[in-house]
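hiii so um. not sure if this is the right channel but i have a protein structure encoded as tokens and i wanna go backwards to a sequence. like what aa goes where. can anyone help
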């Protein structure tokens, strides 16, 4: 099995983060991971906003988040356990990511 790529903190860019957050589904996945008390598997996200997402689509979303440096994924048997890298990212980007999540949440409240 091919090893997962997790960029080092120095290789993570603002452009990569903004690209990962350009899709509302990825922002929602990341926000849920950030708020979780423990690692979450991809299957926790099969249904978002009352719609079912194909496993292949979810895999792509997690790959984009991982390669942008926003999450860490670890294989455990057939499952992938995912966590937010916010504590590490705060060292380099300060409040940027939390501010983006806050703006996303506020936007959703205005639309809903």
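sure thing!! here u go:
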């Amino acid at each position: 099995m091919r090893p997962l790529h997790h960029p080092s903190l120095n290789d993570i860019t603002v452009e990569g983060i903004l690209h990962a957050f350009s899709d509302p589904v990825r922002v929602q996945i990341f926000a849920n991971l950030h708020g979780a008390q423990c690692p979450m598997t991809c299957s926790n996200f099969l249904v978002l906003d009352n719609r079912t997402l194909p496993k292949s689509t979810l895999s792509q979303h997690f790959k984009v988040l991982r390669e942008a440096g926003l999450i860490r994924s670890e294989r455990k048997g057939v499952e992938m356990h995912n966590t937010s890298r916010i504590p590490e990212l705060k060292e380099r980007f300060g409040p940027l990511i939390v501010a983006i999540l806050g703006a996303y949440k506020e936007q959703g409240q205005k639309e809903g």
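oh and The domain at 11-111 is CATH 1.10.10.10 (Arc Repressor Mutant, subunit A).
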